[in-house]
Write a structure and sequence with these properties.
By secondary structure, the protein is mainly alpha-helical. The chain has helices at about 15-25, 30-45, 50-65, 70-80. It has 4 helices and no strands. The chain is globular.
């Protein structure tokens, strides 16, 4: 029988994502922050580790009084109407 408490995996983006999540916890539900929250929810969905980030993403949803479905609906509208991320290469987005 496999031990369900085996070491959680460390996500390669954890350090940078931790800073983003800390900013989300202290921030407001701006368009950019909503997009970041949705992006990180997708990144960590089903990931076997980074429980601290996953729990804090839940906290942000609760603070902003949103369900995940509402968050994704809002961010779909945002991405359809504008470029939320402004980078040198606007064709590239970081979802992985």
């Amino acid at each position: 029988m496999a031990d369900s408490n085996l070491q959680d995996q460390q996500h390669p983006q954890w350090a940078g994502d931790r800073r983003i999540v800390d900013n989300l916890l202290a921030g407001e539900a701006t368009d950019f922050n909503l997009a970041e929250l949705a992006r990180l929810r997708i990144r960590y969905q089903g990931f076997p580790g980074a429980k601290d980030i996953q729990q804090d993403l839940d906290k942000v949803l609760n603070q902003w009084q949103l369900t995940e479905d509402e968050l994704f609906a809002k961010t779909r509208q945002l991405h359809q109407g504008q470029h939320v991320y402004h980078t040198k290469d606007s064709r590239q987005e970081d979802w992985s």
